[in-house]
Design brief:
It is a single chain. With 242 residues, the chain is an alpha/beta fold. It is 29% helix and 22% strand. The protein has helices at 32-42, 58-62, 86-94, 97-100, 119-130, 179-188, 203-209, 229-239, and strands spanning 3-8, 26-27, 30-31, 48-53, 77-81, 106-111, 135-141, 148-151, 157-161, 169-171, 175-178, 215-218. Strands 1, 4, 5, 6, 7, 10, 11 and 12 form an eight-stranded mixed beta sheet that branches. Strands 2-3 form a two-stranded antiparallel sheet. Strands 8-9 form a two-stranded antiparallel ribbon. α6 (179-188) packs across α7 (203-209). It starts with a strand and ends with a helix.
Length: 242
Amino acid sequence: MRCAAVLTAAGSGTRLGHTLPKALVPLGGTPLVLHAARGLAASGVVDGVVVTAPEAHREELAALFPGDRVPGTAVPVRVVVGGATRQASVAAGLSALDDVAPGCRAVLVHDAARCLAGPELVRRVVAALAAGAGAVVPGVPVTDTVKRVVDLPDGGMRVVETPERSALRAVQTPQGFARELLERAHRLGAERADDEARAVSDDAGLVELLGEEVLLVPGEAAALKITTPADLELAERLLRPS
């Protein structure tokens, strides 16, 4: 089963204290997006990668992939301009899948901000797709107590529910999908894509709107999302040899 990946790399680096897109922020001297692409390629189950980039930095990101390959591998890469939201960026990446993996039937959607997701996690997601799942997300148990809240007229918030923690998971990427299902979900949810308030925060959310089942597989601690300087510091520690 041929599998391609859409690697989203258009996020802002503002909360990391950078003016560059987050994907270009260095981790151990290497941009986050390059770490993420190498993790996908090292799995041995990804046949091509489409990277979605901010228009102003497309050439800069493309230069990280000489010969349009993940460095040190034969995995082809195409860098395309993303959209106004993550959902719109993924849709742009889906339109270029056949440029890197013609006829692929499975798609991974991964975030450059989760650049340390390991090859075994990628293989776990793809194995679930190969076994017949239409949509797969990796997740880890939630350790904090979580409250559901509502806004109050004075600008405050009120707690309305404490969900049972054992039934909650923090979801990571890469998420995996049957290509036809993901393309259909994006097509039917396209009216949300350019509105940040309505766009979904992950692709499994679009699939859920269709009433389709989403399977969960175990995630991993290394697949943390790098958003703040503290996250970057933790990732630096994880990257160092023990």
